[in-house]
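User: For my dataset I need records formatted as: sequence, then structure tokens, nothing else. Please produce one.
Assistant:
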Amino acid sequence: MNEKIEKKLRELPSKSGVYIMHNSDGEVIYVGKAKNLKNRVSSYFNQTAKGPKVWAMVEKVDWFEYIITPTEVDAFTLENNLIKKEQPFYNILLKDSKTFPYIKINLAEKFPRFCVTRRVEKDGAKYFGPFLAGVSANYILDFLNKFFGLRTCKHNLQKSLKRECLNYEMGLCSAPCTNRISEEEYAKRVESAINFLKGEDQFVIEKLKEKMNSLAETENFEKAIEVRHTLGMISKLKNQSIANLPRNSNKDVIAYSTNDLTSAIAIITLRNGRIMGMQSFSIVDPSITKAEVIENFILSYYENSLLPDEIITNAQLEDVEFLQTVLNKKIKFISSPKGINLKLLKMAEENAQEHIDKNITRDKQKYDNTLGALKTLKEKLNLQNFPKRMECYDISHISGTNRVASMVVFVNGEAKKSDYRKMKIKTFEGNDDYRSLQEVLVRRLTRLKNRDGESFKERPDLLVIDGGKGQLSACLEVLNGMGVDGIDIISLAKQIEEVYVPNNSEPVILSKQEAPLKLLQRIRDEAHRFAITFHKNTRNKNMFHSELDEIYGIGKNKKKLLLDAFGDTETIKKVTYDDLCAVRGISSRDARNIYNYFHKNKK
């Protein structure tokens, strides 16, 4: 333990708050919350027995800071925001999870409709799911709409429409849009569909069997096979039911397993007495106890998942009341299950252990290709920063036309596509990649200085330029001219993959077989792909651009009407005001705007 940490530990208050652990590169590696900051943070650095995973994190801590909050709930909110912003390596981020689909209905709507969503919100709507284990939410939704004659359109039905759509003509919709069905009758259909999703499916199964047999008798075998497939999907849902659980039973079973170095959590989801599926997650959380890890997982997992009535865990949770407050639901937590609940917990534990056994090699490979590669880059390129946030720039054009640039962002060695940006070169004409790169960097660093834009206000640790010594020198001029310090910059030459660094005329040669160069190649190739795609789109758009696009009130549809009537823009320039007014769909105001635009220099 260094002196900085010893001094900080003595200053810690016995209040609630958030603590932030940094390594020697200043990188945030862990963010935690605490009821009592002094007790919690001190527990990491005292000599009590801790697992290897905790020691591995503690050994990397060079210093920490803390923020006092009024309550533990405020600490959770702040912790959550900091984790999303910093993405610390040791926090539960659930990056290897999938967001599974739900079927949603908002009963507050007039003639409500069902839809598939992957985001559960506190909006008063009903959610059914998640749909896992080979059951397609979209297929079930399509069946519900057709079987019960429910609407699929997004029209606002406060006012009825003049005519029905094709779905009504095909017998697939009851057409509430034209008052073909009353609100009361439609509500009964919705209630029946909801009951089906809750497991009351016998009536539906009998009707489908009757339909399948009828189709087979009339030798309409193709339609009969479709109905049989639907019955199979419903049967798959039905077979997931557990005999000893009541139909209204909604619970999740969460099991944590670790070999002290690698950890995993498995969660079994049960809705309406059915097993909907099982998910497993790799966990790096270095919390002191198993209960803390599970609590952190619960708070992260249910941020975008439907809450159950019960949660069964293989650890006695320490602060159930806090969890209930944050989740805003009086969930029943069970840590000593019996009977069928115990069997389900054992199943989850076996799956968590299996996930560890299967993913030890995969997790090591992922580390080597991301954080491990970044660590090696810092050492071999003698960077001043740990390159947590890398930004790569590329220019694309054809002979100096349609010049564009791309900015691609990697965080912790992985693409962060929400921060990608594309730009057009604006300040000069012609083919000059050096000046193009300089323009892009000036614009980017100016927006960093002004804290302008979500992806531009984040400070990069490393700038990667696609090119050689010339491109690097041009970009260094910008950094020096703007007085920007503390940002590393390198360039990667394409031909033999040489890496150029400032103040060194000789390139650094990295092994082509090892992860550090492959990481640089990935971000360079991604920037190249992104720039080329933008260039193609810009070029294609410009090919179809005409002077008509510059005229007020003339959009895509009116432009088509004019070209259909006169053939091309040159002819439109010569026609009279009356000729323009004669075109169906072109108003007198449009005609005046068009005529004046092309004759503005004539009296």
